[in-house]
Design brief:
This protein has about 375 residues and is an alpha/beta fold. It has 12 helices and 11 strands.
């Protein structure tokens, strides 16, 4: 009786393809486990490691990459927590289909701005006012959203920092300063976002703004013309909606369910979608991995922009922190906006935008018209 046919060694083939593409830089300031995490995530997202691919064992990776087991374990645990990998008891670690099943099979690269025709807009119609009513600080039982615990502000530390820098008279401190924002601050923001939110951005992509609202206003002027369609969550963040509405744009609401904003109902002619995936404002819903993939596919298919407002992502009661759309989008359709209003104080007016490289200079030029960023 002849021997049964040999079973294919999936692990060896998959491991060879994956190991050939992974290169760790020991001279980089980025920890090795984060380098491994990002490269594996990229290989999964671009289809190099398709769903159900079995990854080599941690022992094999340790030997092949010349790193500690803790480095590999930390990278695998992060990828598993975010749904990119799935461990099978006694059978190894496999690529999960959670993300790749909803991503575009081949990312469609967004053309450079010079090739997009009307990629940046003319100045829109005159602004009009529809701002929400101001919160009365004397009303201690106000249910107006987005207020902070003022008593928790680190007043003592803040006072010492002000005293330390109040005597500065150099041009960076008292002049107009860098139009992109204070460079050490931009570097610190990039380091934070890369470490905590997995954005894989450089400081040159970060522009400091006067809160998130300035970023929305600048993007509305820069990317939209009157009568352009903008998709917003319904219900959604009123301040973000007003920024686009004030440009004379046609604002169209999309429903929100337990998985977040519904991409299927989006107008294919819409030029931009404004989303709050990390904590939907005001419902608090966290957008699911599948829904995030659907929105990225929507932007690629229609050549549209997504403004990702990562509001309140630092303030979580339960659940895992999913990767932002910006870190998942390989075709550069997503603009990431954040702020320090909730973790410090809204009165500081300190926010930032993380942009595709070719949009940084146009964004900064528009900022110089609308209002320069805060000084250090």
């Amino acid at each position: 009786m002849s021997d049964p046919p040999a079973r294919p060694r999936i692990m060896k083939g998959a491991g060879g393809r994956m190991l050939a593409a992974v290169e760790l830089d020991r001279g980089s300031a980025l920890p090795l486990h984060l380098q491994l995490y990002r490269q594996l995530r990229g290989l999964i997202l671009d289809g190099t490691l398709p769903p159900e691919t079995r990854l080599p064992s941690t022992r094999t990776l340790v030997a092949e990459l010349g790193v500690s087991r803790l480095t590999v374990v930390n990278a695998f645990e992060q990828l598993t927590a975010e749904g990119f990998l799935r461990a099978r008891q006694g059978d190894g670690t496999y690529v999960d289909a959670l993300w790749t099943a909803t991503m575009a099979p081949a990312p469609v690269a967004r053309p450079q701005l010079s090739e997009r025709g009307a990629a940046t807009s003319a100045r829109g119609a005159s602004l009009f006012s529809e701002a929400p009513h101001s919160w009365d600080p004397k009303d201690t039982e106000s249910f107006v959203p987005s207020q902070v615990a003022a008593s928790a502000f680190p007043a003592g530390v803040w006072r010492r920092l002000l005293a330390r820098h109040a005597t500065r008279t150099d041009a960076a401190a008292v002049g107009y300063g860098d139009p992109y924002g204070y460079e050490p601050l931009r570097q610190a923001i990039a380091d934070y976002l890369n470490d905590v939110r997995g954005l894989s951005c450089g400081a040159e992509q970060v522009v400091v703004t006067s809160g998130a609202q300035q970023a929305f206003n600048v993007l509305a002027v820069l990317l939209l013309d009157p009568a352009d369609t903008v998709l917003v969550e319904d219900p959604g963040h009123i301040s973000g909606r007003l920024a686009f509405q004030s440009q004379g744009c046609r604002v169209q609401g999309v429903p929100v369910d337990d998985a977040g904003a519904v991409a299927a109902g989006g107008d294919p002619s819409a030029r931009l979608a404004y989303l709050t995936p990390s904590r939907q404002h005001p419902l608090g819903t966290v957008m699911s991995p599948a829904r995030r993939g659907e929105w990225i596919a929507w932007a690629q298919a229609h050549g549209s922009w997504i403004v990702e407002d990562d509001c309140d992502s630092e303030l979580r009661y339960h659940g895992k922190l999913l990767p932002p759309l910006f870190g998942l989008d390989q075709a550069r359709h997503v603009i990431y906006v954040g702020t320090f209003s909730k973790v410090l104080a809204p009165s500081l007016r300190l926010g930032y935008a993380v942009l595709p490289h070719d949009l940084v200079e146009p964004f900064t030029s528009a900022c110089s018209v609308i209002g320069t960023p805060p000084r250090p």
